[in-house]
Amino acid sequence: MKGGYVLIIELNKGQEISVGSLGVGYFPAGFYAYCGSALSGFRSRINHHLSKNKKPRWHIDYLLSKAQIREIILCQTEKRLECLLSQALGGELTYIPDFGCSDCHCKSHLFFSTDKDNLVGRITSFITRLGLTPQSYPADSTLLEHIFRRA
Asked: Which of 90, 94, 101, 140 has the highest CB neighbour number within 10 Å of its CB?
């Protein structure tokens, strides 16, 4: 299974976080949505994000060292959904400039909200408007079983 994904992340306490080449930035407490693509398959990408013992490779790895993934939204597609979704959300949500988009022209691939339900609702609504079907999973073993069974 391959396509686009969105990590729904919770940061319990506002704090400064060093994000590799972006430097140090302040991240308020709340919920973040990180848009990504896994066109070679979800299995290794999602496992990387869920892993606790990893050397930071991408911007998101630095945030995940301080925050927790609460939910993962998967969408099977051949399209690079991360940029389509990021451009749509950028007009509606607060975004963290230059985060996760060093290989494209998006303003960001990371978005912030204090309201998790609103954040997830906007994301799933946009994916549905694209004619795609979002699949949402809590970040636990149920998700991993699903990915390994269908990968």
From this structure: 101
Rounded Cα distance, 140 and 142, in Å: 5
Judge whether 126 and 35 are in contact, CB under 8 Å. Answer: no
For position 151, what pLDDT does the model report? 45
Length of the chain: 151
Reported pTM: 0.92
| Burial zone of 147 (CB within 10 Å; 0-12 exposed, 13-18 middle, 19+ buried) | buried
- Measured distance CA(101)–CA(86) in Å, rounded: 10
Strand order in the sheet with 94-95: 94-95, 110-113, 30-38, 3-11, 68-76, 135-138
